[in-house]
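During the first year of the project, the team set up a workflow for recording each protein of interest as an amino acid sequence followed immediately by a discrete structure-token representation. This format lets reviewers and collaborators read both layers of information side by side without switching files. As required by the reporting guidelines, we include two representative entries from the current panel. The first entry is reproduced here exactly as it appears in our internal archive.
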Amino acid sequence: MAVNARQVASSAIVYRTGRLFFELIDCYAPALETLALLGETLKHALINMLTMQNSMNTRVHPDWINQNFEWYRAAWIECGELIEHYGYKWWKKQSPDMEQVRLEVIDIWHFGLSAMFQADKSIEQMAAEIEQAITGHTPSALDVREATEALALNALQTHGFSPALFWDLMLASGLDFNALYSAYVGKNVLNFFRQDNGYQDGSYKKNWDGKEDNEHLVELIEALDKQADDFAQQVYQALEQRYQELVRD
């Protein structure tokens, strides 16, 4: 069955009183050395992330898939922001801010997942295609700047998104699939939190006591159990508590 952006495509997502709570599919793998060992875990995680991304995008526009938004453009612009955090100016001293670099990698993945949606394909089909692209790819061992440029160039040339080239960037930034998944869930929950608190009408405050909400998210996730069944709900509640303490009060 093809994806309908109006439809929540999995029981992995539950809405209650306008707030989003996730019952996450059990797809946190232990530390794995090779993609071959990921097996069904990789596919299930991709289905879960695609489902979550569809729900987030549907929150912004009920028929988002048919709007032909330029997700590829958002992805390559994020690539530029990543390079800013990593550093490229040989004429001055710069130290890579790898925490921010990895946050940009997660943002790029959100846009990349969105770019790969097609109205005539189911989430399961798209997950299978992404899995095939990743497992059939030999990592390039490019450094962060080179991997970022390769991904951005591909987006500009194809107006699409390459999971394989993204994989190179993920590895170059020091992330593995486990870290990508948990960080993606956290950022997805933050995006819902933003929407719940006035992101579209401009009333949401992105800066909390001198730091962006992204930075608070990283701090809060560190203190949580990423393997917990209610991990996403814990993230939402932690964000809500800190926002109440630092912004609303």
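The second entry, processed by the same pipeline in the following quarter, appears below.
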Amino acid sequence: MLCEHCNINEANFHRVQVTNGVRSETHLCAQCLASQQGAANIGNMIAALFSPVEYVAPASQLACKRCGTTPARFQQTGRLGCEQCYTDLNGMIEPLLKRVQGRSRHIGRVPEGFKQPEPADPVQELRNQIADAIAKEDYETAAQLRDEIKKHEKPMV
């Protein structure tokens, strides 16, 4: 990934900043990071005291918490190790997906024959459990399940 400031060097540092619940990320090379930090004056230091906390992590320290996939390994293989990689390496993956696909979320057709699982009816499931409890002559459990059904079927006021 190239530095967002100079667009020449490889980005070695990734800055994540959250302000008012909005997350922003900056990817910089070592030279641009040094120039930005070196340009700080007393006003910037005072402003930094009152700004939200930010963390700058070298790309070499980024890795998936579950499988250990690093950005370097992803760049070599083009594959992620697990579903957790999408969360842990999001700062690197999302810009790539936007550049390649135009967006970072799937919006499109669903494959033929694919059925969304229908949400189960909790009351019907409880009724099935009551029938099983009665068949086993477990009347205490059946009474508890009956009370559960009454809670679900209570009219909303």
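For the second entry, the following points were noted during internal review. The chain is about 45% helix and 10% strand. The CA atoms of residues 50 and 141 lie 58 Å apart. Both points are flagged for discussion at the upcoming steering committee meeting.
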